Amino acid sequence: MKKILSTLCVALTAVAAFAQQPVITFEKTEHDFGKINEADGRVSTVFSFKNEGMTPLVLSNVRASCGCTTPTWTKEPIEPGQTGSITVTYNPNGRPGRFQKTVTITSNATEATTRVYIKGEVIPKQAKPVNKYTVKVGELNMANATYDFGTIKKGETKVGEMDYTNLTKEELKVALTPEVINGFVFHQVTLPAVKTNEVGKFAFSIDTKATKLYGPVEVNAYVVCGDKKVIDDAHKLTLKANIVEDFSALTPEQKQQAPIIETQNEFNVGKIAAGKVHKYIFPIKNIGVNPLEVRRVYSAEKNLVCKAPKAIKSGKKGTINVEINAKDLKPGNYSREVIVITNDYANSIKKIKLNFTVE
Question: Rounded to an integer, what distance in angstroms lies between the CA atom of residue 286 and that of residue 311?
Answer without folding.
Answer: 9
